[in-house]
Amino acid sequence: MAVKKTYEEINEKIRRGEAVVVTAEEIIDIVEDEGVAKATEKVDVITTGTFGPMCSTGAFINFGHSDPPIKMTKVWLNDVPAYAGLAAVDAYIGATELSETQGMAYGGAHVIEDLIAGKNIRLESEAYGTDCYPRKDIVTYINKDVLNEAYLFNPRNAYQNYAVAVNASARIMYTYMGTLLPRLGNATYCSASQLSPLINDPFYRTIGIGTRIFVGGAQGYVAWQGTQFNPVQTRGGNGVPVAPAGTLALIGNLKGMDTEFIRAASFHNYGTTMFVGVGVPIPVLDEDVVLKASVKDEDIYATIIDYSVPQRSKPNFGRVSYAELRSGKIEINGKKIRTAPISSYNKARKIAATLKEWIKEGKFFVQRPVENFPLDHTFKPLEIVTEEEI
Amino acid sequence: MAKKKIVLHFPEESIEKPVTYHLVKDFDLMPNILRARIDENEGTLVMDLEGPAEQIKKGIAFLQDQNIGVQEAIKDIIVDQDQCVDCGSCIGVCRPGALTIGPADWRLGFDHEKCVFCELCINTCPVKAIKVQF
What we know:
Chain A has about 400 residues and is α+β, with helices and mostly antiparallel strands. In chain A, about 15% of the residues lie in helices and about 30% in strands.
């Protein structure tokens, strides 16, 4: 009879220090050597990891109240504007917001990294003043220890697959997919592929609202489906999407994070963004979980997109596997093209290995989703229309 | 004997000049071409120039007279391993293949010998881990 395990049974094993935990790379070999049935019996948790630039990243901060108090309407952190249109001393600092003095060299992502690193940040704020909040301006310094709450809330992270970017035009392009050389001079890709969380659970069986995760070196949770969630994307026979599909909204305590696993980035002529380390444990509930998580790079495909076409719908040059992408060269129209990753596979490995250790040491437990994601949700474009046309 | 690493930048009108020949014949120098990239519009040449210090000086003055840009205080490309996150973005712009990442350990490797100082990697690095040192 096929093995089935419950979340409770797996957590009990973790508690007793008996859980068998392997990474999403290690499960590939185990399944190849011993088959899915034996692997399901033997392994209790499979850990995944990814470390790519995720622009939809930011943090909520509560500064505490000054004396006399202020209802902050405009807030700057190291000259980077933060959104303060909520309550008196709450703000949201977004990763892609740029410094008003340094431009693309420093942005919200750098503020977040500096906070995590324990550095002092200059806080400046303006207000119109009210009877209950009489102060109209403030300049002071903060760091993570003096803040009340500081938590990352990322509307869209951990993309389930992404595009391969090329540039067929005659000019060099600077994009969020890196520097794209003219005339198909290179191709960049951005996924942890066989280690990536949502590629190992393609139909979101174990990853849903409430799933406990590794984020930026701390424990966090999946808060919601990510923005631009697109489960109806074209999929291969193994269920893995061949283009961007599912996404995760994540939450995690910024005060517990480590800059080893979350880093600010600045893409030339594009702006700032943030490398976010995310690891999700996949509990081995049955053979289907193992079968899906044992997917390997040669069976994961991405679509090659021409980023030089300045339209929403861009032409493509077909599909290519991650095994080919990771070989360093792919072929387009008979031409060999150098490939480069944008997401760090080395860090993805470290994250999957760290999460594995946490679980083995009984410090991290698997959490059944409170609710699963819809599988029929569609990703809509923004049309430019008049009020009568909508 | 002295040795100096220099980078020559040829504008369009100087591409066809046989400068290496003159460095050998007229200045008694030993040029060792490390990298060359020349097309119809411009050219870059990285070379070691070996010979008496005085001759090297004269040879460089000759090159400058030929309207060739000479970077003397040779730069070095430094990869700060503490800053680097091993994303690999830089390898996509490294035409000579000096920057590498791959299945061995997915860590960034840098081979100084292959670098032609194009500096495309400097701006491409999202964490500013690659720097030019003069």
